[in-house]
Amino acid sequence: MVDEDSPANASMAARCLFGAFGPDGITAEEFTVICAADLDVQVMNGGFRQYLVNPSKHFAENAPAALTEIGAPNAASVVREFLNICTVTEENLGPRSHGLIVRHYKLPSDRDSESHKYDQRYDQAEPVWSLIREYIIANRPSIRTYAQAILQLKADGLDAESRQHRHAEAVARLNAQWANRERPCPKCGQLFRSVSCRGRCPKCGHTFYASHPNEYESFPW
User: Fold this and answer.
1) Maximum CA pair distance of the chain?
2) pLDDT given at position 221
3) Is 184 helix (H, G, I), strand (E, B) or coil?
4) Same domain, 101 and 33
5) d(CA 21, CA 6)
6) Pairing of strands 198-200, 87-92
7) pTM here?
């Protein structure tokens, strides 16, 4: 039986909704669950160094506030102190991540040995995973389960099956339009023909879509 009150279930649901609809597609409570659960999983598994090399690091800036919100001020303090010894850069994650601008934290090499100290302090703080569960139960109307998230994605045509169907339709439509048409390679300028929209330049080996030669990342599927 699925444990719908587990932090894993709620954070997975929130991540699906965030990926489909962006920051405005989830509630403040769901964002709290993402930030707290992602951090706790990584730090308890491989320490802060593991946390900073996984996608969960994108919400590191928000983690202390999330931990405070669920009732773990000591854990929040440890995370805040750890982030304060890191260097910070900003990155725009691009259109596939709804243009989200995040702060990336990196532990300087001359302070690498200190991470273990913070790992131990975090481990001795509050039982974060249990507190996240309590927070989910207390805020259930505002925190959707994974099953509810999938139903919403299906209703909006954003589930995996619907995306695959649109992908297949787009491929068929563009192949019919671009098959056997001459196209210039955007890398070396060589003219050639391909049996589909997607082709590989016979001169330089560059692969691209004739319909979107310079915009692969925003290809419409």
Assistant:
1) 65
2) 46
3) strand
4) yes
5) 23
6) unpaired
7) 0.72
